[in-house]
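During the no-cost extension, the postdoctoral fellow (Dr. R.K.) reprocessed legacy sequence entries with the updated structure-token encoder. One reprocessed record is reproduced below for audit purposes.
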Amino acid sequence: MRLRTLRVGSFEAGGCEASSCADGARGGRSLQAAQHPASSSLLVSGTFSSAMKDQSVMPENSVVSLIHQFDQLQEERVHSYRLLEEGHKIYLSTEPNYDFPKFRKLVHEVTQDFKRVSEGIIAVEKALRTDNHITAADIIASIQKNEKRKLELTTHLQLAHQMAAERDSGELEQNKVKEIRSELGQVVEQINDLLTELRYEVRNGK
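Re-encoded structure tokens follow.
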């Protein structure tokens, strides 16, 4: 069984340019769908939402509104990763006769979500810059840059998981999974640190 891959989006430094690449002859498709790591500890922290809702300490309503929009979009992105993760698990469970059409449909839907979320976050970043909240905008830009790397790594992780499953969890494949998961964990940690930095930036009104 040759690996079928399906690419889910590609991030630019300031956002996401998502596309579904399911073209190709049967058996020659590439399936590089982004998969969020199985460990829930790698999910972006949800504590940012409650912190942002405490508007009594926020300096300006316009900033509060924009950051709240960003927060909602970031949570939607995390949710999309979860859906894709579960979908990929189901896809792997159909080995050796993978249900590729069903998974391709899920990938297409999640790709559209990634695109919508990224466009919304780019709009928030631009609005913050227009209002002269440069530091907050720069932090969001950094988050987007890290999200680009996160998506690249989750793509590699998914493919590594599939290779390990098809090759009876060989040592080489398992080591590759561990290597990618470790780097992915570092990227997600960086995203969480940036979210915390953004929270303090808005609280302090710098």
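The longest strand covers residues 15-21. The CA atoms of residues 13 and 145 lie 5 Å apart. The remaining legacy entries will be reprocessed before the final report is submitted.
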